[in-house]
């Protein structure tokens, strides 16, 4: 169906005088793939980068993809990894466990080896797909970047541990974090194959948002990913999240398996025979990365605190309205988790910004979730490599009718110049909105190309240092600012640092 739509688009573009689609064939290490070309960008979709994780390969480390003969069609996205239908993957979108594919956008007239961006989508570790319309990489390719987006295992199929699976695994094989293993395998595929698309394997920037941003933090701190990328971008990634131990994850997995229909004490083979739909249906959102002691030995924040991270340039930040992910729920639990003395200090530091307990709880959630962690990580990264901190506070014109805050994920529409492809369509897009997208996209492109963001027409973006505590603020005006919430973040930093104990680290 998608290929048919592409052919229709080719006819429409041809009628308007634009460049019509034409085939493009590239040799990768497993065979030849054929993509399509439009307006100077060649697109390859649905390229398998590892073997399908089905049957005995469910809950196993990625295996090499089998080579194929002839030319594989790469004009349609692969299926989404199994998940509950939602905003990211509406009803009717094809899903399959055979979902480990990636997509490449490259300039048709690439000259010298170009910088590469590898995108890891968000979705809470149990939703989303690289094929979402707003993740079209054409804008990056037109600006001289080879763009790659990756699908990886999700939910109960991507982040799962069980005593039977552990017992059946080979000695020292990584466990539980199959989605992370997929991301590493995709980066290795890029390292081996990206030259065929005009990319430079030595100039790879790995980037992600939300759960994808947290994935980048793991990639920065696990030894298995070292050397696979030269730079990193973290958009709204939860930097202070603490993850279960292998024993805790196995207990969760055993409970989930019973909910999915497996008897107590089921073998690994019996678990792998369960329908994917039963596992997804039994998933209550408890499946996250785990400290398995093999691939992941500690939480990212503990690795950053110990300076055990890749010393690469980092662009990291958050949005002004991250608390929108709470919806209309009452986050009173946030206040109950903080002792009276620091809670009183936070209340005073926020001042008039939080006139009641509801506003205070939402503000603390917003800042403790990603805002303060982003600054905290930027500070530690700055000891070994340049880091660049931002907050995105620009709100599209149509949304200003009901909010003055930039919601979780909204910055992606600007970074990708994809305002016209928003999951919830923007009924009005002004020229000011489009100008902001052009500028923000340019900042990211500059970082990918040079390791230092430079925003077209805006002030120079300084590298972050704790002493100067400056960030780039994207609002109605784009400006370099002293951190506007430093007092609050200092209190949250202190609470977090006091929580760092060696107990969470695996041997």
Provide a descriptive summary of the structure in words:
This protein has 16 helices and 15 strands. With 507 residues, it is α/β, with parallel strands linked by helices. It has one domain: Alpha/Beta hydrolase fold, catalytic domain (Rossmann fold, 3-Layer(aba) Sandwich), CATH 3.40.50.1820. The strands form two sheets. Strands 1, 2, 3, 4, 5, 6, 7, 10, 11, 12, 13, 14 and 15 form a 13-stranded mixed β-sheet that branches. α12 (340-350) packs antiparallel against α16.
Structural domains: how many: 1
Report how far apart the termini are. Answer: 50 Å
**Count of DSSP H/I helices:** 16
Taking all residues together, what is the mean pLDDT?
Answer: 93
- Taken from the alpha-carbon principal axes, the silhouette is globular
Structural Rg? 22 Å
Level of helix content?
25-40%
Question: What is CATH's topology name?
Answer: Rossmann fold
Structural class: alpha/beta
Query: Based on the structure given, which CATH architecture is correct?
Result: 3-Layer(aba) Sandwich
Q: How would you characterize the largest beta sheet?
A: 13 strands, mixed
CATH homologous superfamily placement: Alpha/Beta hydrolase fold, catalytic domain
Question: Approximately how much beta-strand content do the residues carry?
Answer: 15-25%
Number of strands: 15
CATH class: Alpha Beta
Low-confidence stretches: 1-22, 503-507
């Amino acid at each position: 169906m998608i290929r048919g739509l592409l052919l229709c688009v080719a006819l429409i573009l041809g009628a308007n005088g634009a460049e019509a689609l034409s085939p493009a064939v590239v040799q990768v290490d497993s065979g030849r793939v054929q993509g399509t070309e439009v307006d100077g960008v060649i697109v390859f979709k649905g390229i398998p980068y590892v073997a399908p994780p089905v049957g005995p390969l469910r809950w196993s480390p990625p295996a090499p993809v089998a080579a194929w003969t002839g030319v594989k069609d790469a004009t349609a996205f692969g299926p989404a990894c199994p998940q509950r239908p939602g905003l990211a993957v509406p009803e009717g979108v094809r899903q399959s466990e055979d979902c480990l594919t990636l997509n490449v956008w490259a300039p048709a007239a690439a000259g010298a080896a170009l910088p590469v961006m590898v995108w890891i989508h968000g979705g809470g570790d149990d939703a989303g797909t690289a094929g979402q319309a707003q993740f079209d990489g054409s804008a990056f390719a037109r600006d001289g970047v080879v763009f790659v987006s990756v699908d990886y295992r999700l939910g109960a199929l991507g982040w799962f541990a069980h005593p039977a699976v552990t017992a059946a695994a080979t000695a020292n094989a990584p466990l539980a974090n199959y989605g992370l293993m997929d991301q590493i395998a995709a980066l290795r595929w890029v390292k081996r194959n990206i030259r065929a698309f005009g990319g430079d394997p030595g100039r790879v920037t790995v980037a992600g948002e939300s759960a994808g941003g947290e994935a980048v933090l793991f990639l920065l701190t696990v030894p298995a990913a070292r050397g696979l990328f030269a730079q990193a971008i973290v958009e709204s990634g939860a930097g202070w999240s603490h993850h279960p131990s292998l024993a805790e994850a196995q207990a969760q997995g055993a409970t989930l398996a019973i909910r999915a229909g497996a008897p107590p004490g089921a073998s690994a083979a019996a678990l792998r025979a369960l329908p994917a739909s039963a596992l997804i249906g039994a998933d209550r959102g408890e499946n996250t990365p785990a400290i398995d002691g093999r691939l992941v030995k500690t939480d990212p924040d503990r690795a950053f605190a110990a300076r055990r991270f890749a010393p690469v340039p980092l662009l990291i930040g958050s949005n002004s309205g991250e608390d929108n992910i709470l919806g209309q729920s009452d986050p009173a639990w946030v206040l109950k988790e903080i002792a009276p003395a620091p809670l009183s200090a936070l209340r005073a530091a926020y001042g008039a910004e939080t006139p009641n307990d509801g506003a205070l709880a939402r503000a603390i959630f917003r800042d403790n979730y990603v805002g303060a962690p982003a600054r905290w990580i930027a500070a530690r990264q700055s000891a070994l490599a340049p880091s660049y901190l931002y907050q995105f506070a620009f709100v599209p014109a149509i949304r200003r009718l009901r909010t003055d805050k930039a919601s979780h994920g909204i910055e992606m529409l600007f970074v990708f110049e994809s305002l016209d492809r928003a999951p919830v369509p923007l009924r009005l897009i002004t020229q000011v909105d489009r100008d902001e997208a052009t500028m923000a996209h340019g900042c990211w492109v500059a970082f990918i190309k040079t390791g230092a963001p430079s925003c077209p027409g805006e002030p120079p973006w300084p590298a972050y240092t704790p002493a100067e505590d400056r960030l780039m603020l994207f609002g109605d005006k784009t400006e370099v600012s002293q951190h506007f919430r430093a007092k609050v973040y200092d209190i949250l930093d202190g609470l977090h640092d006091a929580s760092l104990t060696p107990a969470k680290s695996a041997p």
